[in-house]
Specification:
By secondary structure, the chain is α+β, with helices and mostly antiparallel strands. It has a single domain, classed as Anthranilate synthase (4-Layer Sandwich), CATH 3.60.120. Helix content is 27%, strand content 30%. Helix 3 runs antiparallel to helix 10 and helix 6 (223-238) crosses helix 12 (462-479).
Length: 484
Amino acid sequence: MKHVDISASVPFPGSLGTRGRLLEPVSRVLTQTALEVPITSPKGPAVSIDLGIQPRLSDLACAFQDMPDLVVLEGGGPFGIEGRWSFLAADPVQTISAAPQTSARGVFLHQLRDALQATRSNSISDIPFQGGAIGYISYEGGDSLHRPVGHDSESAPAGYLWAGLYGWVVARSALTGLTTLIVNTSVHPDPDSVIETVRHRIRSGIREAGQARLDALASNASRARYIQWVKEVKDYISAGDCYQVNLARRISARLQGSALDLFRRLTHLHPEPFSAYLRGGSVEVVSVSPELFLRKTGRLVRSRPIKGTRPRLRRPEDDAATAEDLRRSSKDRAENVMIVDVVRNDLGRVCLPGTMEVPSLWSVEAHPSVWQLVSEIRGRLDSGRDSMDLLAACLPPASVTGAPKIRATEIIQEIEPHPRGVYCGTVFAAGFDGSLVSNVAISLDREVHLHVGGGIVAGSEPDAEFDETVYKARGILEALGLRE
């Protein structure tokens, strides 16, 4: 297996120092249409094998857990098309990583682009990911694409930028359970050996999940400290520095058991459409994310930022009432539309003018423990731009930074005492066919750290903002039998 460890500075054309185009107001963009143009020009074939109806890939993963750099991207749940597909891959032919140092910014995506273009191929079915790069970009890694980000040796996160190039992938439809193995023959000239390995492991059966659990919970911010952070952000807003800043506190714990068993438990009890398990390099990541950061299909680009949250309640009538309260909240709508504008600005760097649209604004969607206010932005990627340009233009995600983005990230770095790591970065899958899907990572890394936060605006009530972090954490913690 080839490994590329980035330490030199290589320019990343078209990704750094690009100013966003001025965009039209949301009210006008709502009427515009984005077009999808499929990618052509295949360079290598692939074969697909029907594996029949199989259990959830988070469960099937135990048959592959001794393989290097195992990854599982788990969909499912009542989320329609967003959660339809799940993917499993392991033993990449190449890995690419970068340490937390500003000299590496841009190089990671440059190397990743080269690796994908060397094995470019067309899709052979409607399965949205058929092999390619799977990895993560930490919050600090994404932030470093736009400005120098300092890290000291003790606080720098172990995981920064990492990806594996996977020549085979198992794909499962949540609608039918039908499972397919896809092998890229440019990467694996002898696909029969891969097919037999995967079939043999599946036949070996699924073991029961171990009793993974967390204990010794501790937060880096008490209610009083978080309230003070909120007041500091509101002072910046009053001074005209920003309109919104996403603040997060960190809950730390000890993991008893394996991270894969923890992931299996969470995906059963707290399903989200963009959950992920990655064992890449020295880091294990467990992410249970509700948010689609970016999806590229052909030239069509979509982003679905979440801003605005209410807790789910036990009595149906109370639950419906709190959803309606979120739907009508002028504060949450304002908070959401600020982020919509930032996403439009980010996408405007790489999308064709006149193709931006907002087909859905302020939709209320149900998740296991919360109601979320979600909007969708679409655009058509400019010719000569690709998935790597798209990631570079949009990282770190708007919904977890603020408005304006760069000033918000500076305030976050000033106030939050610890780096975020993979949390508020992205877990992504970039296909050999040019496709891309990525989430906004809501993660527990191996040490274990769970971050929870929310957007602070001029109308924020400090106590209510802390309460929001409590019920955002509650779903994950209760799925593990814990309360904060």
